[in-house]
Every structure is written in structure tokens, then in C-alpha cells.
Design brief:
The protein is an alpha/beta fold. Helices cover about 30% and strands about 25% of the residues. The protein contains 14 helices and 20 strands. Strands 1, 2, 13, 14, 15, 16, 17, 18, 19 and 20 form a ten-stranded mixed β-sheet that branches. Helix 2 (about 45-60) packs across helix 14 and helix 8 (about 205-225) packs parallel to helix 9 (about 250-260). The radius of gyration is 24 Å and the shape is elongated. Its EC number is 4.1.1.17.
């Protein structure tokens, strides 16, 4: 695959019958006798491919524009670029990242309603025309700095049932939308469509229905003023793992009828979306090592409760925390739970435990309470579904470095990616092909594999 030629990272082919979990176990075994047990990720690029096929099966009319902010790892960007996805960028740096992989400007939307003038000019100089706005001030900035821009009006939604609300910061009301369209007409700025975002971690799919209906109203307003609007951007809010109350297909089963009602397929309207966590959450598993441990003895309470009879609670300190990968706890309202790398014995006693990051800040707590067997310094904990809003916002506070990322992919996944890149996406054939791909690092089947060495060939991605 020609586009996969950058040497900034590589991935390893998985041997037939083996998964990303086997790579994770292998890497842990490799450092078992060493003191250098740094935290690390294993990321399955094949999982991203499977999500892409699943997207087109569930939302055949909607083109995904990946939200780069969610995980800006170059391997992810290059993988999705090869699959033909578009990209939602929020800054000059994200635009540069995406364009460095060879993505044409037509596949980029500068979807930040509040942009610095110099960065608007950068977009103009590099051919990026699609961009969002939600205020008159932004409209006038773009009119001066990028008069050839193709603007998308972002409207507010009811995101009260979302985990991370966005309409408190972005979006124009329907009343304001009419005023903005009128002002755009005076400034001779081209408005090509409408966008919205129901909030990250959407828990009520009906929010999409109302937002799509509102978008239809704005399209009608635009038509009255002479705009030929042809783009609808339904934003993000799609889950990236299965441990959620509202499943992906439950959301799409509500979106599709709404699109058919308000924007039928013969209307000529192009529909895009801005999925982020959907693509990357389940692809990444983080392995952390216990670097310190504290035993806290409980005072005698006179209780017959079994927990009290254990006589102690345990505090574990690991080598990644909320200033690193687990910033998702603070910024993304994530609730994480550890998976033990070594098996516990059937009759092993469980203790109430807390898990802490490595920094000298008392805020650096990963898990407040979790019941598990007693572990020792040097043991490993795994955290699944760690691809979204983790590495992208991690810092090096206190001098603790970000974990390395080890990318893997099966050969069938690689071959399917080549096919899609060369021939385009063929939903029926690709759905059949993807069914033969190995499981991702979520290792959902429960089938055990003996740790094995993966193919030693590293392919530059």
C-alpha cells in the first residue's frame, strides 16, 4: 500500500489465529525479568477497519469524517485516510497532520466554530474550504480571511442527555440562524449546509431526530434567501465500545428514518458525520505496571461483614495516571476498570482496592474502589477501550512519559485495506470479507491462545 510509507511508526503483522491480546502478553513476558516495565498500548488497526465496514452497513448514506481530536495518532489517521474517510479538524496542526498523509483538502472540514484568523488563512492557503461557524463575528472573520470558504452553519441541539455537552459552547438557535443567513447574503459568503453535534456520549437517539428536523428548517430558510445548500453534517456522539447503555445500531436505527424523512435520498443532499470514539475506543488496550503498594489496616469495627474480616484495604500505584492516558477520567467522564493480566485462583480472597497514578498529586486517582485479589509490585493491570480521548490529551506532568503504542494488524485486514484503497468501498463484498478477520484486542470470544511470537516483519505505515 503506497500511502503507508512513513517511517514515524510501524505495525506488526499478526500470525494466523493470534490476536492483539497475544501481542500484549508477549510484550509483558519479554520484560518479566527486567526492571523496565513501562506502561504501553497495543492497538489493533484491524479493529478500526472493522468499525469502518460496520459504519457503512449501519449508515450507508453517511460519509464519516473522523474527528482527529479524539486520537491524533498518525497510524490512525493514515489508516482512515487509506480507507477513504474524511476528517474533522479543529486547528491548523490537525489540518497539517491530515494533509501530511496525502489527504486532499476536499476531504477535510474545519469544524471549529471559533477559529484564530491566522489559522483561517492557513486553511485558505492550503485549499481547505469547508468550515463551520455559529456567530456573526465568525462570519465576518471568514469573509475577510477566506472569502472563498464554503461555510456550514452549526446549530444548537438539546444535548442535556449527553455525557459531554457541547451546545453550551457552540451552536446557533433557529432564530439566530435566520439572522446569520441574512448577514451571509449581505457579505456574499457561500453557505453550503448545516451541522450539529448532539454531544459526546449521546444517551438519547431521539436527540438526533429533533436536530435533523431543525436542520431541515434551516435548509428551508437558506432556500428562501437563495442559498443552494447541499451538505448536512450530523456530528458525533456515536459509541466506540459495547460497554454502553445505548448501542451504535440503536442510534443508527433512529437516524436513518429521520434522514429519509427530512432529507430523502433523491434530494441531492450530501450527508456526513464526525465520529471520533466510534472508530478508536475499542482498538486500544493499555497495560500498566504496579510500581508501589500500600497496605491500609482497618480498625476493628465489631462488624461481622466479610469485608471487614479481611482486615485491610490495598492501594496500588501504577505507571500511568490522570495526567497521562487516564485524563479521560477528568475530561471525558470515563469510568475505567482493570483487567488482571494473571489469572486469579478460584479460592483467592478479594480485597477492596484503590488504584493511583504515579505523580505527586493527590488528584491522580484512577479507580476509587475495586475488589480484586492481592497483587504485588511488578504485576500488570490491563485497561480495555482506551483509544478515545486518552493519548491525544496526555501530558508529561512530573516528567512521566506517555506510553508507547504498538500497532498490529492481521494479514486479511491488511489485504482488505489494500482492496478498499485501490477499488473503493464495496459494502456487500467488504462486509463478507471483514467477517473472516480475527477478533480485536477486546478478545471478546473468550477463546484462549497460548502466547506466541507474532510475525517479525514490521511494515512501515
Amino acid at each position: 500500500m503506497n500511502s503507508f510509507s512513513n517511517e514515524e511508526f510501524d505495525f506488526t503483522f499478526l500470525d494466523e489465529g493470534f490476536t492483539a491480546k497475544d501481542v500484549l502478553d508477549q510484550k509483558i513476558n519479554e520484560v518479566s525479568a527486567s526492571d523496565d516495565k513501562d506502561a504501553f498500548y497495543v492497538a489493533d488497526l484491524g479493529d478500526v477497519l472493522r468499525k469502518h465496514v460496520r459504519w457503512y452497513k449501519a449508515l450507508p448514506r453517511v460519509t464519516p469524517f473522523y474527528a482527529v481530536k479524539c486520537n491524533d495518532s498518525k497510524a490512525i489517521v493514515k489508516t482512515l485516510a487509506a480507507l477513504g474517510a474524511g476528517f474533522d479538524c479543529a486547528s491548523k496542526t490537525e489540518i497539517q497532520l491530515v494533509q501530511s498523509t496525502g489527504v486532499p483538502p476536499e476531504r477535510i472540514i474545519y469544524a471549529n466554530p471559533c477559529k484564530q484568523v491566522s489559522q483561517i488563512k492557513h486553511a485558505a492557503n492550503n485549499g481547505v474550504q469547508m468550515m463551520t461557524f455559529d456567530s456573526e463575528v465568525e462570519l465576518m472573520k471568514v469573509a475577510r480571511a477566506h472569502p472563498k470558504a464554503k461555510l456550514v452553519l452549526r446549530i444548537a441541539t438539546d444535548d442535556s442527555k449527553a455525557v459531554c455537552r457541547l451546545s453550551v459552547k457552540f451552536g446557533a438557535t433557529l432564530k439566530t440562524s435566520r439572522l446569520l443567513l441574512e448577514r451571509a447574503k449581505e457579505l456574499d459568503i457561500d453557505i453550503i449546509g448545516v451541522s450539529f453535534h448532539v454531544g459526546s456520549g449521546c444517551t438519547d437517539p431521539e436527540t438526533f431526530v429533533q436536530a435533523i428536523s431543525d436542520a431541515r428548517c434551516v435548509f428551508d430558510m437558506g432556500a428562501e434567501l437563495g442559498f443552494h445548500m447541499h451538505l448536512l453534517d450530523i456530528g458525533g456522539g456515536f459509541p466506540g465500545s459495547e460497554d454502553v447503555k445505548l448501542k451504535f445500531e440503536e442510534i443508527t436505527s433512529v437516524i436513518n428514518p429521520a434522514l429519509d424523512k427530512y432529507f430523502p435520498s433523491d434530494s441531492g443532499i450530501r450527508i456526513i458525520a464526525e465520529p471520533g470514539r466510534y472508530y478508536v475506543a475499542s482498538a486500544f488496550t493499555l497495560a500498566v505496571n504496579i510500581i508501589a503498594k500500600k497496605v491500609v489496616l482497618k480498625e476493628q469495627s465489631g462488624s461481622d461483614d466479610e469485608e471487614d474480616t479481611n482486615g485491610k484495604t490495598l492501594m496500588y500505584y501504577v505507571n500511568d495516571g490522570v495526567y497521562g492516558s487516564f485524563n479521560c477520567i477528568l475530561y471525558d467522564h470515563a469510568h475505567v476498570k482493570p483487567v488482571l493480566q494473571k489469572r486469579s485462583k478460584p479460592d483467592e480472597r478479594y480485597y477492596s482496592c484503590s488504584i493511583w497514578g504515579p505523580t505527586c498529586d493527590g488528584l491522580d486517582r484512577i479507580v476509587e474502589r475495586f475488589d480484586m485479589p492481592e497483587l504485588q509490585v511488578g504485576d500488570w493491570m490491563l485497561f480495555e477501550n482506551m483509544g478515545a480521548y486518552t493519548v491525544a490529551a496526555a501530558s508529561t506532568f512530573n516528567g512521566f512519559q506517555r506510553p508507547t503504542i504498538n500497532y498490529v494488524m492481521s494479514r486479511p485486514a491488511w489485504q482488505l485495506m489494500q482492496q478498499i484503497e485501490e477499488q473503493g468501498f464495496r459494502a456487500e463484498a467488504d462486509e463478507q470479507d471483514v467477517g473472516t478477520l480475527p477478533l480485536s484486542c477486546a478478545w471478546e470470544s473468550g477463546i484462549e491462545h497460548h502466547p506466541a511470537t507474532c510475525a517479525s516483519t514490521s511494515i512501515n505505515v
